[in-house]
Design brief:
The complex is a heterodimer of chains A (410) and B (372). Chain A contains eleven helices and twelve strands. Chain A has 410 residues and is of the alpha+beta class. Chain A has two domains: 45-130, Orthogonal Bundle (Helix Hairpins), CATH 1.10.287.90; 135-410, Sandwich (Immunoglobulin-like). In chain A, the strands form four sheets. A five-stranded mixed β-sheet of chain A has the order 3-2-1-5-8. In chain A, strands 4-10-9 form a three-stranded mixed β-sheet. Chain A has a two-stranded antiparallel sheet with strand order 6-7. In chain A, helix 3 packs antiparallel against helix 4, helix 6 (262-274) packs across helix 11 (396-406) and helix 9 crosses helix 11 (396-406). The longest helix of chain A is centred in the N-terminal third of the chain and has 34 residues, at 52-85. The N and C termini of chain A lie far apart (80 Å). Chain B has a domain at 264-370: Immunoglobulin-like, CATH 2.60.40. Chain B has a five-stranded mixed β-sheet with strand order 3-2-1-5-8, with no helix packed on it. Chain B has a five-stranded mixed β-sheet with strand order 4-10-9-6-7, with no helix packed on it. The chains are: A alpha+beta (410), B alpha+beta (372). The interface between A and B is large, with 40 and 36 residues. Bound molecules: copper (II) ion (CU).
């Protein structure tokens, strides 16, 4: 004990570092970080509003950010000055005084005024964004591990319920109101270009306004940590012109066309045998002509699996994490001009454009592609129910057939 | 050259580095674990660097008192308690989560006591003062926790006894025990000269008796009617008709309401049912209900007489080849009352619909629940 203590006392000299070099290093690092934040291809950039609601947030956050920046800078400079001017150079401790009312009151009042000013505008924006009485279209949004389901109730221009997943299709220039809920844990819906975040909570309904000014695709992702594949729970809002949206509705409501022959016909049989216990395809019938009704609640913990009736009318799958279009066709849609975009999106997925590799991977072994709790030997806690899609151990033959069949679903 | 603090953190950092190498070699799914371990290595390394640079906050120069000047530490049961806690914790890992939590509780308590004790013993050279210092800090923690624990044990024991004896018996028992306590306390206050040990002894005997009776009655179980009620289940007796139900409408005045979170508010007014849907508006005759998801609907009765809202959710099998209507309902609600009805519909409307909301006794008005 003693010897150690002595040893430590004997050795008080600390090697002097060069403060200049440290400062330069820090400056360089922060500069690099700053530059790194200016990514070019950033579809989820919160500084690029593309609709009225996001614009309101932007109008608020820019001045607030500027004010906070100025205040932060002042504080930083003040701290730095104090550190360098008054550092301990062995000078005597200066005379200590207590209190300086004028200074203290000023330093309390100024921040209070700043906060009050920011608060007024923040409250106004919050109330604006909570409005529901000017709604022009309703879409129910249900989150579950790890994808979003959309259903469009019957309303003006929509004569029968529509159900879809992954990509939210909306008409431009329309005040859309999402009514969000969840089937399992809390998720959060966020399309940065169109509005802020809103949690989807089981047993509750929360609303979120969305409005897009221009046709196009707006990316987003779940922003409430929701388990294993939270990072793979994405979504896209697809804005179509009003005419194109009407076409989309008609296409969604078009009757199911059972394939008549070939690989696709065989694929339908495989689908009925392997997939229809979880996935609903509206209009699919068994040999007796009775509709086949899926039972996801008996197979999946959340009680739902994506409705695949018009699967190939979407551009993405599995929580909008993978593209259904190959690279060329995808770029073609994403980079289309506002005028051309609608037609390109409505074309859906053709055999030439299909992203065969990713979809085959998915069918071959879904949990290997997207982490999910679907290992049948480890489902004791959930009574045999999976979270996500299990590996169905399909043969390559069956996958060929299914690929052909899935292509007909649009 | 290395300070005590920096040695500690360097040790952690090195250990994390070694473990992450071992982890890398022995595990298949490495990403998350490696990130965690390397994160630990880096962060401990940074702290080590910081404490090295600041010479552990620069206090080492003052550490000049010799160890001999410190008073010898007194005996302590906390190391033992800590070990006990660890054992409980380990047993908890392999048995019940509750045991694990108790283990954590014991460990935390033992650590707190031990820390404060060892600190107080070095607070000064005066043993009495040190004991006082310990009490100052720990008594405000110890007393409420102990009191809560004792109250909890007594309350649980008492409730076990009350649940086991018959309804009338429990009332008599309650009166008897309360009287006994009153008598004992009156006697104590009449005889202030009584020794504290006597009081403590009587109180201990009483408490032990209570706990013993609690444990015994816990073994016996709850009284029969409670067991039967639990077995039969409240909701299996849900009678969704026009009349009050013997089982279900007992506490109508306790209607629950919920302002938000419901998918729709269904209002009965002037013999007409309408739905008010968040974001859609009033006067709806149709609401969309997500499939296979418990969904809440608020019923509000603005009629003069009592009514209930009944949901028809299709047919349910009750025996081989026999089905009956699958009904869910609120209780009978008086004028102005509200109650939430939670429904879960497993099949889409085109499979088993139409699903409806109606009010028994009022014909010709209903709301359709569309399940996409
Ligand atoms: Cu999520």
């Amino acid at each position: 004990m003693m010897s150690k203590a002595v040893e430590e006392i004997k050795e008080p000299t600390v090697k002097k570092r060069n403060p200049r070099r440290v400062v330069a290093g820090l400056a360089g690092l922060s500069g690099a970080l700053f530059l790194a934040s200016c990514a070019k291809n950033a579809p989820q950039d919160t500084w690029q509003p593309k609709g009225e609601n996001a614009q309101k947030i932007d109008d608020l956050q820019r001045p607030v950010f500027a004010i906070a920046g100025v205040v932060g800078l002042i504080v930083l400079v003040a701290v730095a000055v104090v550190i360098f001017r008054f550092k301990d150079r062995g000078q005597p401790i200066p005379h200590q005084t207590h209190g300086k009312p004028v200074f203290e009151i000023t330093m309390t009042v100024i921040p209070a005024l700043i906060l009050a000013g920011v608060g007024v505008f923040t409250a106004r924006t919050v109330f604006d964004l909570a409005k529901t009485d000017d709604t022009e279209m309703i879409i129910n949004v249900t989150g579950q591990q790890w994808w979003w389901e959309y259903d469009y109730p019957v309303q003006d221009g929509i004569s029968a319920p529509i159900i879809s997943s992954g990509q939210l299709v909306i008409p431009v220039g329309t005040k859309v109101l999402l009514r969000e809920t969840s089937r399992d844990v809390i998720h959060s819906y966020w399309i940065p270009a169109l509005n802020g975040k809103r949690d989807a909570v089981p047993g509750r309904v929360h609303t979120l306004r969305l409005e897009a000014d221009e046709p196009g695709i707006y990316a987003g992702q779940c922003t409430e940590f929701c388990g294993l594949s939270h990072a793979n729970m994405r979504m896209e809002a697809v804005a179509l012109s009003k005419e194109d949206f009407a076409k989309w509705v008609d296409a969604q409501l078009a009757a199911y066309q059972s394939p008549t022959e070939g690989l696709a016909k065989e694929g339908e049989a495989v689908f009925i045998a392997q997939c229809s216990r979880c996935h609903q395809v509206n209009g699919l019938e068994n040999a007796n002509g009775d509709p086949i009704i899926s039972a996801p609640e008996e197979n999946v913990l959340a009680g739902a699996a994506p409705n695949l009736t018009k699967f190939m009318s979407r551009n993405t799958f599995a929580g909008a994490t993978w593209d259904l279009l190959n690279k060329t066709c995808r770029d073609n849609v994403w980079n289309a001009t506002s005028e051309e975009f609608g037609a390109k999106y409505l074309a859906g997925v053709s055999a030439e454009c299909l992203n065969v590799a990713d979809l085959r991977d998915w069918l071959r072994n879904a949990p290997a592609k997207k982490p999910m709790y679907a290992d049948p030997t480890k489902l004791a806690d959930t009574g045999g129910l999976t979270r996500g899609m299990p590996n169905l151990n399909l043969t390559e033959d069956d996958i060929d057939k299914l690929m052909a069949y899935l292509l007909t679903l649009k | 050259m290395f300070t005590t603090g920096s040695k500690f953190y360097l040790g952690i950092s090195t250990l994390a580095a070694i473990v992450s190498v071992v982890f890398l070699i022995t595990n298949d799914q490495v990403a998350l674990g490696c990130v965690a371990l390397l994160g630990l290595m880096v962060s401990a390394g940074i702290i080590a660097g910081a404490s090295l640079a600041s010479r552990d906050g620069g206090d080492t120069e003052n550490a000049t008192t010799s160890a001999a000047a410190d008073p010898a530490p007194t005996s302590s049961i906390w190391p033992l308690a800590l070990t006990l806690g660890l054992v409980v914790l380990i047993i908890g890992i392999i048995t019940e989560p509750l045991v694990f939590v108790i283990g954590i509780g014991v460990i935390l308590a033992a650590l707190a006591e031990w820390l404060v004790q060892s600190w107080s013993e070095r607070a000064s050279a005066d043993g009495k003062f040190n004991a006082l210092a310990r009490k100052r800090i720990l008594n405000p923690l110890e007393f409420p926790i102990l009191a809560t624990a004792i109250t909890g044990v007594i309350a649980v024991s008492f409730s076990r006894i009350m649940l086991a004896v018959s309804k009338d018996g429990s009332a008599i028992l309650f009166i008897v025990i309360a009287t006994l306590i009153l008598v004992a306390i009156s006697l104590f206050s009449l005889k202030p000269s009584i020794r504290t040990t006597t009081v403590a002894a009587i109180a201990t005997v009483g408490a032990l008796g209570l706990v013993a009776a609690g444990i015994t009655t816990f073994g016996i179980g709850e009284r029969e009617e409670l067991v039967i009620a639990a077995e039969e289940g409240h909701y299996s007796h849900q009678e969704c008709g026009e009349e009050k139900s013997k089982y279900y409408d007992k506490h109508v005045e306790r209607t629950v309401s919920s302002k938000s979170g419901v998918i729709a508010t269904v209002i009965l007014k002037d013999g007409e049912l309408t739905a008010q849907v968040l974001g859609i508006g009033e006067g709806q005759k149709q609401i969309t209900v997500p499939r296979a998801n418990p969904t809440s609907i608020l019923f509000q009765n603005l009629d003069d007489t009592e009514h209930r809202l009944t949901a028809y959710l299709g047919e349910k099998p009750v025996a081989e080849g026999v089905t009956e209507d699958d009904l869910r309902c609120t209780q009978m609600i008086g004028k102005g009352g509200k109650q939430v009805l939670t429904v879960m519909i497993k099949k889409p409307t085109f499979a088993e619909g139409p699903y409806t909301l109606t009010v028994p006794g009022i014909e010709g008005t209903s709301i359709e629940m569309i399940v996409p």
